[in-house]
Amino acid sequence: xYAQKEPTGRGAYAAxxxxxxxxxxxxxxxxxxxPPAACDGGVTRDASGDRSVMAxxxxxxxVGAPPRTYETETIAGYLVTAPNGNxxxxxxxxxxxxxxxxxxxxAIVVVPGGLSPGEEGDLHLAADGFVEFHFNAEGRGxxxxxxxxxxxxxxxxxxxxxxxxxxxxxxxxVQADNLGVLTGSYGITMGAGCxxxxxxxxxxxxxxxxxxxxxxxxxxxxxxxxDDPGNDRHVFAHNVFGHxxxxxxxxxxxxxxxxxxxxxxxxGNMRCRYLRLQAEWDHAQPPNAxxxxxxxxxxxxxxxxxxxxxxxxxxVNLATLGRSPxxxxxxxxxxxxxxxxYDHDHPPVWYTGRLVNHPYAETxxxxxxxxxxxxxxxxxxxxxxxxxxxxxxxLLAAYFTCDGEADYNPEADLDDSGCVDLADVSILLAxxxxxx
Length: 436
Prior knowledge:
Elements: H1 9-22, H2 27-30, E1 50-54, E2 72-81, E3 87-95, E4 105-111, E5 131-135, H3 155-170, E6 174-184, H4 187-197, E7 205-209, H5 215-218, H6 234-241, H7 252-258, E8 273-277, H8 310-321, E9 327-329, H9 361-371, H10 389-397, H11 422-430
Helix pairs in contact: 1-10, 3-4, 10-11
């Protein structure tokens, strides 16, 4: 953590003045609850929306799974508006509001893999007491296409996810401080991009299901490292994305396009917990049962490096070294310690075979993460798991400074604006008094 200054008596006095001055005006922020709403949060459905009610459908038991006791309902329609004004088709699967009015539940926002829409998504967790949010990003959808054009998980789609997260957080039946994001495969590009660009979003955790790390992996370049052209897949990737990897096209235009679409660029700035689900045979990358001999390490450059599950290790290491307060690979039963760095010679324990052979890993991970305690709100500058006068004094020591100036403290720049100002004071005061 950034080396902090010790608060002086003068600084502590100034902190008290700031607290007394701003706490009352910011009371709405400090005590912010979720707005009262009608049965469905006051959402108006258009003709393309639908609402259905179903009884809970029993599934096979899972590790530590609670009893399936809730009857569920589905609310669907163009419920979310993206920042650019386009309407996003969104589906909510939740415990029936008429039967469980006043209750709040943990929530999960799902980002599907590839360029897939979310309209068919269903984790079957609503009957266990979760609220699920599935959506079609702009330009996606078969039966219920969202407005806009396909962005291939760039900034436009990341802003779509932000809008869905904020919508989910506003729902009257969603628990405060217990909202997660689940990404499948290429969905990590949207998930990490969104949560890294907007680290103050109210997201408790991100679960990443075997997502690619960067343009090299997304473009299936590891498959081209061996001597068998029969398994090369980079042409297929180019047909999907319309761009070659930077190893094949290093032009400024291609660099600019990929700069929005690499999880490695943003995952270190996320402030939520990060859990990577990874099997030894990735669903998209080598090695696998047909081509097991993919280990190109050590290597001369980034265009010739690969070893089993390198993309998982790269992302976990970046999150661990970054702002994430907690990271881990796979479920607790495999024994991987949290907040651990890995490399070629010291990998974590992967799920055996393929992830599809572990059908409950995903839902068990969601239950585990939802059961964890809330995150410390932004503002714990001295790292003692609370937000108090000492933290406010540290922020004031950097008050009215900007990046590059002598007293600037990036930890006090809570909104990543490049300057420590009143907005950062407001953010800290919103969590003032928190004690972990």
